[in-house]
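Exercise 7. Predict the joint structure of the components listed below.
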Amino acid sequence: MQTTHPGPSREPISLSFPRIIPRPKSEYGIWSWISTVDHKRIGTLYAVTSFFWFLVGGIEALLMRVQLSQADSTLIDPEMFNQLFTMHGTTMVFLVVMPLSAAFFNWLIPLQIGARDVAFPRLNALSFWIFLFGSLFLNFSWLIGDAPNGGWFGYAPNSHVAFNPTNGMNFWVIGLNILGVASIAAGLNFIVTILNMRAPGMSLTKMPVFTWMTFVTSVLIVLALPVLTVALIQLQVDRLYGTHFYNTAAGGDPVLWQHVFWLFGHPEVYILILPAMGIVSEILPVFSRKPLFGYSFLVFAGVAIGFMGWFVWSHHMFTVGLGPAANSAFAISTMAIAIPTGIKIFNWIGTMWGGSIRFSTAMLFAISFIAMFTIGGLSGVMHASVPSDAQQQDTYFVVAHFHYVLFGGAIMAIFGGIYFWWPKTTGYMLSEKLGIINWLIMLIGFNLQFAPQHWLGLDGMPRRIFTYAENMGWENTNMIASAGGFLMAFSVLLFMINVVYSARKRVPAGDDPWDGRTLEWSISSPPPHYNFEKIPNVEHRDDFWFTKHPELIAEYYHDEHSGELTAPSGAQFDDDVAEEEDEHSEEHHGDDEHGHGGIHLPDMSYYPIILAAGLTIVGAGLMTAVPVIVIGTIVLLWGLLGWSFEPVNDPVPDSH
Amino acid sequence: MAAATGTYEIKNEHGEVINTSTGLSNKKLLMWSFLGSDVMFFGSFIATYLVYRNRSLVGPYPADILDIPITSVSTFVLLMSSLAMVLALSYIQQGRQKMGTFWIFSVVVLGAIFLLFQVYEFNHFGQVGLTPRTNLFGTTFFILTGLHGAHVTLGVLWLIFLGFGSIKGSLRADNAIDLEIAGLYWHFVDIVWIVIFTVIYLISARDVGPPG
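Solution:
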């Protein structure tokens, strides 16, 4: 990625790489999307792709619900059922919630911190294309009738060749490794962007909470995904080349897989939920018309969750037999992580308390996030108790728990975020009427599907079984759950109708339809290519809102003269530093566009997609034949070298 | 932390002034973050090696096969390459192009020597009957040191690229940051080797099969 290309100030240097495809210039048409490096377009690509996989994962879930709606059903055979629940879990975790969050990161982070793009625009494009190709690679397994079937956790040695000789788990192992590269690259990019690209005056304690949660999530991604990569590489070399990491006949240890996988797997849970918490923390203050309650607590609680999330992984393994000492330690740490989570819930409620609340669709989704997530969190604390967990392990109780957290939590918040930021990203309003119906049906359908599963689980219905006997007494409850599943599907259909409606009706949104607080609402909808004509200078938290309502600054910030503390949100914490900073930023406020006289945006590039294609071809080659690996490597090197020699901006004739 | 508010000016490789909130260049911050990620990568493999210590069911065991003196030599070579890296960066930063180029290629040569040692070692182990498929020691040893070797190889290729840049004049004092981040990577890979050398060669050199 190092650039050794000539700068405009130096004499031409002969290092170059032959261009096979000319650099794209047009801003319209399909090629402009393929070669885009604009964070907003990449965000849109993420959103569209992951919504497509959301539908695929939803169809997989519905098939399972149809199968389970009756006892002794023979619609789907056990092998197909294994493939369905494996791919449903894998899809929803890696192809839906993570990339949907990435869509929000891409769209919003530069806008919220007052930047023109992310720190590494081409790397950002690379992340998306690797994600796209990796997701296609993983799902290609359906087409050859050999989808992964070992669960989203892929427990070895069950996923080992000896017990699982088909190609399905190879697709899973290689596909997830490809996706892991995309996630790590994106995580690195957002860490650097958030740390380094903030507008003048925006200290860490003035960043919007969504930006904060994105930062914590990115750190988790960067540290947790390599652990998954290691587990996958170990399983991959075992399966493809006959090594012994998880070969029990040679002394391989099945518990090691669980440790390595869940050491990744639990931080992953927070990777899924923290962005949702960030989204909710943006929606609630706007529609309560007051600043977030306890900003500092909320942020520190998020950081604490990100930190403590590393010390709880063995609660997935309470029934393995690690012994009372290990079980107790992990039970305590798991219960402890409920504390920062509880702090957040109180903060959100405190934000609404005393506010004049507008019940828009986004707000309704955000409020139901709090309620559903709290239910899921409470059943989670039940699992933290080892004897209780021993009863619940591998039952539908666990299924109910994590769907309350991940659907009632993450997906609800994401839908709220979509309704909230849709006007900003498209320039048009979604219908609030349809939106509220969408919300209501989704909430009812969701609870109809997953609340009964608590009872099923406590009654002993195991997970991952393709059917159950007639005399178990589970038919009615399962039928209700399946009906709830179809209601949820209907609510998603309503959302799509709403999208079409918005595109047809084209009700203009204006720059700031909700009386927003953060910087993205200060620019036009949709934002111009360059985001900010002039990089804003930030003085307060919620700077844009206080710009609109200067009379409220005194109410919410520490009053110097009376010495009274009126701030509800720990504002005194950075008020002292704010003064110093103001002096600092003052000096540079007048600087004209970063000192080089115009808005510079990176040119478009084909190399990210070429590099991503090369990587995926290498992955496919690992499963098939050496020549494919060679071809993939050549494509990969083409992308890499072309990228290295390509200047971010082609020299413009007659400039400089 | 609060003082970091976008007021630092640094120069990019074109000599243009850009503002960053931390005063570090984006590239350097990216490399540090990536190295944090790589710590987890190697950490997990090293942990796997430690978990599987003394658990191979058949030989050859580490005590039968590891040769500490030879590996000490290759370790020394790799450590010296870090010294060369420091000198290379220093000369490039001072604008002493020829010395810089010399030391960059010294790093390349020393890295290549280390890799040749590894090729020899892998070959030799194969001849005396230890492959990744032999036992748990073979599996964990080859995958861990092999992935480290892959990191070194990547570093060598990167430095060759930069070395030619230095000859051609596209790597100079004003964009020495490109060499600096390659140096960060190189030193990191060195440090990982120190851990691997300690864990595999020094600590477990007398390991045999499982007790009993």
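Discussion. Chain B touches chain A through 62 residues (CB under 8 Å).
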